[in-house]
Amino acid sequence: MPLAAQASPYIPRDDARLAAFEHLIALGDVEDPSPMVRPIRRVDAMKALDSALARGEARDTGLINQLRTAWAEDSAQARWEVEGKAGGQGYTEGRRDPLHPGGPGRVRPYVEVRLQGTFANLVLVSRPAIEPRVTDDPDWPGRKDLKVTGRHAEGYLSAQFKYARFFYGQMDQNWGPVAVPGIGLSDYGYPRPAFGFEVGAGRIRLAAQASTLADQTDTAGVVTHRYFFAHRLGARLSRRFDLALWETVVLAGPDRSFDGRYRNPVTLLLLANQYGLGDQGNLILGFDFQWRLGQRTNLQGQVGIDDFQYKKRSGPTRYPDRYAFTLQATGPLRDRVAWRALYTQASSLAFRTFRAAESFTDQGVGLGRSFADNDQVTLSLTAPVTSRWLINPELTLLRQGEGRLDQPVPASGTTVAGDTPELFIGTVERTWRAAIGVSGRQGPLVLQANGGIHYVDNAGNLSGRHRTRFVGRIQATLALGRQGRF
Question: Phi and psi (nearest 5°) for 338?
């Protein structure tokens, strides 16, 4: 109870124990404390674990107790935590996305230090890391000519009260089903500084955040300023059904400022732009839902609409719709095994528009999805081994067209636009992936690994070209930490 009135840190998206928590949610043992929104606060995860034990219906109490021990917090108002990790990373490709591998493979060292201070309703977290792997990642926006490269995996200040939370800084976030990058906001790229807040009670919450994106300079030397804003209103309509409406927008221009009407979280961006005052800006309107079917099966969905042609639905000059959606279902298979099935699709021109500066990217990497013109179906299982390790076998089929976020969009109303298919431009590359992952922590050893065989048909979108390859990565570190009171 004392912790409920104090600030609590967010559980990092790359915490090796988080997969076990998501497994308990998929199994139906634990109720999701923040449906379709990650990261989760540590205190909220603890409440969900305690509630699962109190109900007496959990199938895996050993795993629940292990997570409760790992994430337990001191009840003192002023407290600190320090943890250091050192080890290595091995990878066949530098990019973190296994379905779009890229960059050279190597074995590199990894070192990080996590510093945390909590003062009643205020928590500060800083996690600098030395990670030379990033120079091999095509999505890394920083310098690639250094042998020793560092980044801030986390760095934020958060003020938390009964009905409101505020944060400034950077951390990995995802809005959408946990197994795939969110449409409007995801952690596909590396975190960037943002200011955000969340207000509301248990049944209804309004969240918003704003960030400045990297400027773009054209061949004439003109600098274009870019900004990103997102807000989300989520409501628990019943014990079994959650619904959320959200909007994201990218604003860009040589003399552009972050217009106040776009920063207003209780207005509709759609009315501030297309159907209101009118302005140049790329807007995605979307919704999420979670529906609990039966005792333990969950159905989740997310839809994002970038552009919908309601005036001209046919004809040679019809401009293709721009959209993306995801459907995911989870549930128990046996006593301690959970299953997950998902299908997702992004249209050929999703996340980009006529003005390249207004595409949903930051330094070439997607703010939500980083690849469009594709669809994906994935079937996977999660199963604990003892109460420390989790294994995750997976089967995936990805179909990828030739559309890319960095390509120009054909002008509206032209024959070229009418000839653009709504899904799958050109030759379709098909990737069949059979993989297995393992994650967990045993004493000081922290391990996260994933590897799979890829059979690629029409590799590189070249007809008749076939390729079979292994794609994998592993990170193994030793962690030591201390905590205390000020």
Answer: -115, 150
CA 34 to chain CA centroid, nearest Å: 14
CA-to-CA distance for 486 and 482, rounded, in angstroms?
13
pLDDT at 3 over 60: no
Report the C-alpha gap between 64 and 139 in whole angstroms: 36
Give the tens place of pLDDT for each residue, 295-337. 899 999 999 998 877 666 666 566 788 999 999 999 999 889 9
Q: Quote the mean pLDDT of the chain.
A: 92
Distance of CA 256 to the CA centre of its chain: 28
Q: Using an 8 Å Cβ cutoff, are 460 and 429 in contact?
A: yes
Angle at 78 between CA 77 and CA 84, to 5 degrees: 125
- Characterise 386 by phi-psi region: left (phi > 0), alpha (psi -120 to 50), beta (else): left
CA angle (352, 355, 358) in 5-degree steps: 60
Q: Cα–Cα distance between 486 and 110 in angstroms, integer?
A: 30
Task: Specify the CATH number of the domain 2-485.
Answer: 2.40.160.130
**Has this prediction a pTM greater than 0.85?**
yes
Contacts of 64 (CB under 8 A, 6+ apart): 24, 29, 30, 49, 52, 53, 58
- Tell whether the model's pLDDT for residue 344 goes beyond 90: yes
Spatial contact of 284 and 247, defined as CB atoms under 8 Å apart:
yes
Residues whose CB falls within 8 Å of the CB of residue 111, separated by 6 or more in sequence, listed in order:
84, 85, 86, 129, 130
Distance, CA of 75 to CA of 78 (rounded, Å): 9
Residue type, 280: Q
Contact criterion met (CB below 8 Å) for 179 and 341: no
- Listed by start position, the domains of the chain span 2-485
- Length, in residues, of the chain: 486
